[in-house]
Each structure stands twice: as C-alpha cells, then as structure tokens.
Amino acid sequence: IAKFCEKTKIKAETVCRKIAIDVSTGIIMETPVLTGMARGNWFPTFDAPSALKTENTDPSGNATVDRAEGKINVWNIGKSFFLTNNLPYIEELENGSSIKAPNGMVRTTLARFPYIVKAAAS
C-alpha cells in the first residue's frame, strides 16, 4: 500500500505541475506585446502573490515561461501557487484594452482550464 501511495503521490504532483505550467504558459503567451514589459512581469510564487516588478522586457515570453517552469518544477504541491503581474496597467490589458488581447489573458486561459486538466491527466 505504501508503494501505491507513493506512486500515486508522484503522479498527482506531476499532473499538478503540468497544469500549473500550462496555465502559466497560456497566461504569459496570451499577454499582448508592445514592448514585452507586460509579458516579462509575470512572477511565479508560492503561498503569497509576488510584489516584484521589473524593467526587463521579454517580447518572446520564453524567459518568463522558463522562470515559471523552473519555479513550478520545485513546487511543493501542498503550497498555493500564484502567478502575479504588478504592472499598473495589467488589469486594463486583462479587461481588453489591447486589440491584441481583447478578451484578456487570464480569462482566456482559464476558459481552457478543463481541457488543460484533461490533457495533463492523460
């Protein structure tokens, strides 16, 4: 039974990490790009939202996705996961101020959440 429980725990952690990576990647890559500032200001944390902001830009989103993946891959699943963007205009972007993302980034990614979970579980 102990072997089964350990194997099941590892599988559950793998699925949770995959879901967090896919949701984070979706949000980051859905963030519209003018300079790359908004895309580069997504910060992954555990147990509390981040207070960080950066002047660095990431137009491709690759560095920000890598930062999220690196953090998620060491995530203790018992802790809450946050993906935070503290730019003063991020809420405006989420609410459709950009023609590049008129439906936001978080809402469009979360609308795909059931499919993300199903894909991660399979």
Tell me the total number of β-strands: 2
The rough form would be described as elongated
The side-by-side strand order for the widest beta sheet comes to 1-2
Number of helices: 5
| Derived structural class | mainly alpha
Beta content? 5-15%
- Rounded to the nearest angstrom, the radius of gyration is 16 Å
Reported for the largest beta sheet, the result is: 2 strands, antiparallel
Helix-residue proportion: 40-55%
What is the mean pLDDT?
95
Order of helix and strand elements from N to C terminus: HEHEHHH
**Termini, distance in Å?**
23 Å
Walkthrough of the structure:
- The protein is mainly α and 122 residues long.
- It contains five helices and two strands.
- It has helices spanning 2-30, 62-72, 90-94, 106-111, 113-121; strands at 42-46, 81-85.
- The chain has a two-stranded antiparallel ribbon.
- Helix 1 (2-30) packs antiparallel against helix 2 and helix 1 packs antiparallel against helix 5 (113-121).
- The chain is elongated and about 55 Å long.
- The two termini are 23 Å apart.
- The model has no long low-confidence stretch (mean pLDDT 95).
